[in-house]
Amino acid sequence: MEAGLNNTQADYPRNIALHHLIAKKAGEMPDKIAIKFGQRTLSFKTVNDAASKLARHLLSFDIKTGDIIGLAVDRSPEMIISLLAILKTGAAYIPLDPEYPKDRIEFMLEDSAAKILITSNKYKGHFTSNATEVLLEDAWDKINGYPAEEPDTEVTGQDLAYVLFTSGSTGKPKGVQIKHHNLVNFLLSMAKTPGMTADDKLLAVTTISFDIAGLELFLPLLTGAQIVLTDTITAKDGRALLELAVNEQISIMQATPYTWRMMLEIGWDQKLPLKVLCGGEALPKDLINKLTARCSELWNMYGPTETTVWSTVKHIKNDTDITIGKPIDNTQVYILNEQLAEVETGAIGEIFIGGDGVALGYLNRPELTSERFVDNKITGVAGDKIYRTGDLGKITPTGEIQCLGRIDHQVKVRGYRIELEEIEHALSWQENVKEAVVVAREDRPGDPRLVGYIVLSSGETKVADFNAFTEAWQRALLGQLPEYMVPDDFVLMDAIPITPNGKIDRKALPAPDYSQITRTENNEYVAPRTANEKLVAGIWQEMMGLENIGIYDNFFQLGGRSLVAVRIMACLEQETGKRLPLATLFEHSTVEKLAARLELNAEAISWESLVPIKPKGSKMPLYIVHGAGLNVLLFNALAMNMDEEQPVYGLQAKGLNGIDEPLDVMEEIAANYVEEIINHDPVGPYAVAGYSLGGMIAYEMAKQMLAMGKDVKMLAMFDTYADQTQKYDSLLKRIVKNGWLLIKQVAYTPVLFVQDPKRTIEYKSREVGRRIQKVFKKVFPDKVKKKEGALAYTDDINERSHAAQKNYLLTPVNITLELFRAQKKTFYMDDFKLLGWKPYALKGVNVHDIPGEHNTIFAPPNDKQFAKVLQQCLDRAVK
Ligand code: AMP
Question: Locate the Carrier domain: which residues (predicted)?
Fold first, then answer.
């Protein structure tokens, strides 16, 4: 072993519990801001006092050192205060993400015999367990009755601080037990390297159910730095994170490569005075180059939960030396062979970690603990354990450690640690499943997917409606596993391939349909010829993770979807300075055609509203108007699933090129689309449809076309509510109407919650966020950072379309309306049955239920059923 690598000895207060150190820091700088959350700020004193009071309240439930308390609340300062309060009682906390399935949280509470579950009114009574439920809101009402002095519980460095559950290969998650001294050693080492001082501001983005959140929440409290805490929605939004990093002048942020990519993809191009801590999975080369160009320091952080957050760190300066660096304080790393002997320097072996970060083991799992935490034969000290990471590694000539991937089937998907066996176990219990193997694939960089390979118990190798099976499995798994563990795709297999020595041959498992490369035009590969073809093919290869893309290869047949389309167009714009509409991809979907498009000068690029999505076919064409997202690429899957002879066109908004003035009067928007349709097909008959807000536009279009004497055979709404304008109502009437609606919306929320708690919470929090933002924009128009480029135009068009809708008076039209209604409800509506259309369609409303909710009706697998119902409706309309 490289001399010096493990000489990491450093003094630290091994016997002092973390919260005592934090209380000391709070005493030194009581008035300094400790936490900022939205517009709220809390000082060190406020945080520490509130935690002490809450601890006293929790102690009234007979909590003793060594007990366990679960915490399942949304991200907020109270979440941090509660964590601190639990530590002050002497109990260990179990961080529970309330978004996880109920069963999984209940298992964790039961497995740990948690005495208390701290949650909030929102989740009241939601989790069933033996733990006493303490509601944060109730506790907050009471805590002022307690003194703010530190509770005099006896807690030392040897007591447990938390139990963190991670995916388990035998089918159930396992709880890693971390003591105070593990955490204190780790944090004090981090304060030195990569370093944090009281001048720092850290943007905290990680869910508390991931151990790395410990750095984000406790390191600032220990060093006097400030936490800028994000809510759940912001934490998943690259754009919002970047805005926060800039506006709040964040100096340190820690995240997994997935989150960094998210921020880069939305156009982070300025250099920031930001120390980037990237960890949790391998740091890819391309990310290094992009991040080092935009931040002040980049650090690669490595370590498993079992050795307390991070065990090695490395300051990365360029992409030639990607290592995980050297062990942190009081930590040793060994590269061992199968006999647990050290390999020679430079040879590959398994990474074992020893020292003060090593956990106590897995809760209630003695066998698993002794399998993974083994005696340290190198030091030979009795009781000294080293943790077997399952990672392969070697020591480089520069004396650093290189991590070379996994030995087992643990994977990381979007930063989450997953044991594939746990998913396979859950799948094998599903109906019709005989055998299941799950693999994480990243056929397109940046789009990691879990794929389930299934052998059916019936032995069938062809099933007419395999989708119905896969949907049922996905639904069942969502009830048991966190969403990120549910496979995205399934492949039906005759048999699972086996290697000569009888193991599952994962490498022989085929890629699912999405990446099936079906070459068009004679199935021949023709290499790019011109500079533009090379540019387009190169970008597709990079963005879609495919090799050898030829000039006749088709974007959609290669599995292209709307997100990757956005990236491709942004990249092409960067390289050539030319902005092409996303919809160009419909007509110019091969490399050859798209490259030819780039030859045109900017003025010649068409930004017409009418977009041919699937122009071929003998049937009556269908014209679909964009929804609020403005993206007509959304309709692609629907169109492709319709009859071969069914032409489909999309209508995109005016102004997307940033040159044309967007329209803000409904009648004018509709007239513009009608004109383009009639120019394209002067005779008819016509079928018009609109998605969401687009439904209102389609309605006005049909009205205008009928007035012109045109034959409108079908008018369809894709989940559009007939929102009548309130422009002509008196102020009093408006107040009464909206107030009453609000009451009904609130009253209906529990019904939605019972049907689907996760979706309801997501939707409601997004809604609240949006409203807050709206008010903020109104009150502080100068403080709102203006977006640039295409994003600014999109926002502008969206705002104007909504203004158009607000002013638009719906009047009865002599027509039948075909209403395609999303089966799942996301919000309260006064008229769930006909979505308010009855008074406006004089010939009646025909309702067609389609799977999914408002935002997912076009997404697979819902697109197929939707296409089927829509095609039947169209075919009936022409009869
Ligand atoms: P977790 O317990 O979720 O922190 O996952 C630990 C595992 O993630 C390690 O055993 C590695 O396989 C992987 N990992 C974490 N950080 C890195 C890194 N910087 N480079 C490579 N792999 C990493």
Answer: 527-602
CA distance 406 to 402: 12
In this structure, the residue with its CA closest to atom 5 of ligand 1 is: 304
Q: How far is the CA of 419 from the centre of ligand 1 (A)?
A: 13
State the helix-helix crossing angle for 77-89 and 44-59, rounded to 10 degrees: 50
Secondary structure letter of residue 3 according to DSSP: T
CATH number of 43-155: 3.40.50.980
CA of 283 to the centre of ligand 1 (A): 10
Cβ atoms < 10 Å from Cβ of 769: 17
CB 438 within 8 A of CB 451: yes
* From-to residues of CATH 3.40.50.12780 in the chain: 180-333+350-392
Kindly indicate whether the domain formed by 607-727+790-879 is annotated with CATH number 3.40.50.1820: yes
The Cα angle at residue 559 between residues 554 and 560, in degrees rounded to 5:
75
Task: Output 732-735 pairs: Cβ under 8 A, ≥24 positions apart.
Answer: none
Decide: 280 in ligand 1 pocket, CB within 6 A. yes
Could you report the per-residue pLDDT of 183-242, keeping only the tens digit for each? 999 999 999 999 999 999 999 999 999 999 999 999 999 999 999 999 887 887 787 899
pTM score of the predicted model? 0.63
State which ligand 1 atom lies nearest to the alpha carbon of 305. Answer: 2
Phi-psi domain of 654 (left: phi exceeds 0; alpha: psi -120 through 50; beta: other): beta
Q: Top-level CATH class of 180-333+350-392?
A: alpha beta
Q: Which atom of ligand 1 is nearest to the CA of 351?
A: 10
Residues making up the chain, counted from first to last: 879
Most confident of the ranges 486-500, 588-602, 737-751, 799-813: 486-500
Read off the tokens for 668. Answer: 């004018």
Token digits for 747? 């009253």
765/825 Cα distance (integer angstroms): 16
How confident is the model over 337-368, as pLDDT tens digits?
999 999 998 999 999 999 999 999 999 999 99
Instruction: Tell me how far apart the alpha carbons of residues 296 and 200 are, in angstroms, rounded to a whole number.
Output: 14
Q: What is the mean pLDDT of the chain?
A: 88
Q: Tell me how far apart the alpha carbons of residues 494 and 746 are, in angstroms, rounded to a whole number.
A: 51
User: What 8-state DSSP symbol labels residue 151?
Assistant: P
Return the residue whose CA atom lies nearest to atom 13 of ligand 1: 281
CA of 81 to the centre of ligand 1 (A): 28
In the chain, which residues fall in CATH 3.40.50.1820?
607-727+790-879
- Average pLDDT of span 595-620: 75
Listing DSSP states for 140-159 in one string gives HHHHTTS--SPP----BTTS
Report angle CA 726, 730, 736 to the nearest 5 degrees: 80
Q: Give the 3-state secondary structure percentages of the chain, helix then strand then coil, rounded to 5.
A: 40, 20, 40
Cβ atoms of 303 and 189 closer than 8 Å: no
CA atoms within 13 A on the CB side of 863: 13
> How big is the CA angle at 181 (ends 166 and 210), to the nearest 5 degrees?
25
Enclosing H/E stretch for 375: strand 373-375
Q: Which pLDDT band, with edges at 50, 70 and 90, does 786 fall under?
A: low
- One DSSP character per residue, 265-307 reads HTT--S--S-EEEEESS---HHHHHHHHHHSSEEEEEE--GGG
What would be the CATH architecture of the domain defined by 410-512? Answer: 2-Layer Sandwich (3.30)
CB-neighbour burial class of residue 658 (10 A; exposed 0-12, middle 13-18, buried 19+): middle
